[in-house]
Design a protein that fits this description.
The structure is a single chain. By secondary structure, the chain is an alpha+beta fold. The chain folds into three domains: 11-54 and 153-258, Gyrase A, domain 2, CATH 3.30.1360.120; 57-149, Alpha-Beta Plaits; 310-411, Aminomethyltransferase beta-barrel domains (Elongation Factor Tu (Ef-tu), domain 3, Beta Barrel), CATH 2.40.30.110. Helices cover 17% and strands 29% of the residues. The protein is built from nine helices and 21 strands. It has helices at 11-16, 37-46, 66-73, 129-138, 164-171, 175-179, 230-240, 251-260, 300-303; strands at 20-24, 27-32, 48-52, 57-62, 94-100, 106-116, 119-124, 146-149, 154-160, 187-189, 209-211, 220-226, 246-249, 311-317, 330-332, 338-348, 351-354, 357-360, 375-382, 391-395, 400-405. The strands form five sheets. A six-stranded mixed beta sheet has the order 10-11-12-9-3-13. It has a six-stranded antiparallel beta barrel with strand order 14-19-16-15-20-21. It has a five-stranded antiparallel beta sheet with strand order 5-6-7-4-8, covered by helices on one side. Helix 2 (37-46) packs across helix 8. It is globular, with a radius of gyration of 21 Å. It starts with 10 loop residues before the first helix and ends in an 18-residue tail after the last strand.
Length: 423
């Protein structure tokens, strides 16, 4: 029997705006709005975009044993994961990492928030909270750790783009103080009014957890709020930003921009193969010379033996044409031999090539009159070893296109910009 699709609190708003709706992670979600995915992408780079991300999963890990449980299950070494591995995770900071199984394969990726020494929040992908919570609960016994799935109590809105802080100045209480010196991957407040951490509020007293994170590679925030407050927070932000070019954005824009920012989609770009030989091994607790890990964690024994496992590489095309991963699309050497699979292929419409170089709309040195026509980009999985600058081909049932293996895609991303430059 087909399971009914779940919806977020903003479902009726999306439908009322004429959004093209689709299925993602068991939810009915907006893919794009009538103003189009290209306009949405450009808005995030030049102004601001608002994303409904209440389909994500939220898992609370609490108790005196929470730290050690996460040291066992989460790849980041919490004793040394800040400041390039020199400082421990502390309250008010969060980190990106992955949960692996004993085979070294992905269970899910997550952003882990430390609320206090013995309280953490893991934000996981749509439909994955139950599995991640079960995995964490199964890795110990006793009462020193409690794991709770909060998914249907918490809502989340992603607010991305260079004007996002300016717009928040209109809707946050004590906005200047809240945003002052807020660094990338830090957060303030709590979404539960009963929490002693609930010290960050919208101007109508709604408590929020405000996080300097996001999934586009651009400057912005994620806003966590009680599920019954999502619609009013969403509409308040849209109203405040109407004169600054804010637009609502769908999952197509999120997918294109996260790919251009070299960020992976769980269970597509990372999945049922050993988590090694990819662009995201910074989440593994390597020592200084990458000869060993600094802690023991689930899956690490396999990863130490997997140097010859498949490689994942980013690529960028020479125009906006793309191939369909669902076709399926394959990776070819220039002499036509199939050497791998295409994991993601999208068109980032905010970038283009000029004189052999990729520029973004945000590039301060872009050529005069630069108007990007978009480039396809994504990831391939192959047994072959490739390097930046190598040319390969992608092929589905309709077309065959040449692309370049790269180490980065969209330049001049603003996610790490100092707050002082953006308010």
């Amino acid at each position: 029997m087909t399971q009914p699709k779940k919806i977020t609190p903003l479902f009726e708003w999306h439908v009322s705006q004429g959004a093209n709706m689709g299925d993602f992670g068991g939810f009915r979600m907006p893919l794009w709005y009538p103003w189009g995915a290209v306009a949405e992408q450009i808005a995030v780079i030049t102004n601001a975009g608002l994303f409904d991300t209440s389909h994500m999963g939220f898992v609370a890990i609490e108790g005196p044993g929470a730290y050690q449980r996460l040291q066992k299950c989460f790849t980041r070494d919490l004793s040394a994961c800040l400041d390039n591995g020199r400082e421990p995770l502390t309250p008010g900071n969060c980190v990106f990492g992955v949960f692996l199984n004993e085979a070294g394969d992905l269970i899910d990726d997550a952003v882990l928030y430390q609320l206090s020494q013995d309280k953490y929040l893991a934000v996981v992908n749509a439909g994955m909270s139950e599995e991640v919570a079960g995995h964490l609960a199964a890795q110990g016994s006793g009462t020193d750790v409690t794991v709770e799935d909060l998914t249907y109590r918490v809502g989340k809105i992603d607010f991305q783009g260079p004007y996002s802080a300016r717009i928040l100045m209109y809707v946050l209480q004590d906005a200047a103080e809240v945003l002052k010196d807020m660094r990338y991957f830090t957060f303030k407040g709590h979404f539960d009014s009963r929490s002693p951490l609930a010290d960050t509020f919208m101007d109508d007293e709604t408590p929020v957890l405000l996080s300097r994170t996001g999934f586009t590679g651009e400057f912005g925030f994620e806003i966590f709020v009680a599920r019954d407050q999502v619609v009013q927070v969403w509409e308040k932000i849209l109203s405040a930003g109407k004169d600054l070019g804010i637009v609502a954005c769908g999952l197509a824009t999120r997918d294109a921009l996260r790919t251009g920012a070299v960020l992976p989609l769980s269970h597509q770009d990372i999945g049922a193969w050993p988590f090694i030989n990819n662009p995201w091994t910074f989440v593994l607790p390597f020592n200084a010379d990458r000869s060993a890990f600094t802690k023991r964690f689930i899956g690490e024994a396999v990863l130490r033996r997997q140097k010859d496992s498949p490689h994942t590489y980013p690529f960028a095309g020479f125009d906006l044409r793309k191939v369909s991963v669902a076709d399926p699309a394959v990776l070819l050497s220039l002499d036509g031999i199939v050497t791998g699979a295409v994991l993601t292929c999208v068109s980032d419409m905010t970038i283009g090539r000029h004189a052999g170089r990729i520029y973004s709309l945000a590039s301060p040195d872009k050529p005069a009159g630069f108007q990007p026509k978009g480039l396809c980009c994504g990831y391939v999985l192959t047994e072959s070893k490739l390097k930046p600058g190598d040319l390969v081909e992608l092929k589905d049932k309709k077309r065959r296109i040449k692309v370049e293996i790269v180490d980065d895609i969209r330049p001049n991303r603003t996610a790490r910009a100092p707050m002082s430059a953006m308010v």
